[in-house]
Specification:
alpha/beta, Rossmann fold, six-stranded parallel beta sheet
């Protein structure tokens, strides 16, 4: 097995704690779009969000879906709104979502870069809010590559983003690792021919992720030990 030369991270649920970041976002966009509280609850149910407890359900489309898929789930409840306009609202609210780092990112990423690893981000979020989130955490420059679903490589679980990362940094997929919190992430890594690390800072549990991963870690803070750094 070749040495690891590069790591590509999912963003939401991996670099950033999913629940602490996106539950506030869900409430914000539902209240922005809803006619009233009853309408907000209807839309919440459509995307797998418990409006009263303000928690996502494990099967929520928001966990690994692209904004266009979330918009499709909401469309029957917003017949007067064009899908492109709805996606724009979702992306605008996403850009304002308060990011909760899964672990302190700057020291971790600096340690990985000091070890000579190339780093990237592959997310089913749009690229603009993804970059805004990385910049707000002060880590955008730590990455050699950042791709959203709209960057021209498709979205996960297809491997396009991951293969583009490997090409951009000049590393074979067999020498790269995909790190993510969802089955979409791990299936994308497998399709790209990468090793896969699952983390538990999203909503999926170890039993769900383990069959698709080489290892399951509590969070990305455990990567250096796993890598032997």
């Amino acid at each position: 097995m070749s040495a690891i030369e590069a790591i590509v991270f999912d963003k939401d649920g991996t670099l950033f704690d999913f629940a602490r970041t996106w539950e506030a976002w869900a409430v914000a966009f539902l209240r922005r779009l809803a006619r009233d509280e009853a309408h907000a609850r209807e839309m919440a149910q459509a995307v797998g969000f418990d409006y009263d407890s303000q928690h996502f359900k494990a099967e929520s489309i928001v966990i690994a879906g692209m904004p266009s898929e979330i918009a499709q789930a909401l469309a029957p409840h917003l017949p007067q709104m064009a899908q492109a306009a709805l996606v724009a609202v979702l992306n605008e609210e996403a850009g304002k979502a308060p990011q909760a780092e899964a672990v302190p990112l700057r020291p971790l990423l600096a340690r990985l870069r000091a070890a000579g690893l190339k780093l990237g981000v592959a997310t089913n979020d749009a690229q603009a809010p993804a970059l805004a989130h990385l910049e707000s955490a002060g880590v955008a420059t730590a990455f050699d590559f950042v791709a959203g679903f709209d960057s021209g490589y498709g979205g996960k679980p297809a491997p396009g983003q991951l293969l583009a990362f490997c090409q951009a940094v000049g590393v074979a997929p067999s020498a790269a690792v995909m790190v993510g919190d969802s089955t979409h992430d791990l299936r994308a890594g497998a399709a790209a021919g990468m090793r896969r690390v699952a983390v538990l800072t999203g909503l999926a549990d170890a039993a769900t992720l383990a069959p698709l991963a080489d290892v399951v870690l509590p969070d990305i803070g455990h990567l250096p030990d796993w890598l032997g750094l």
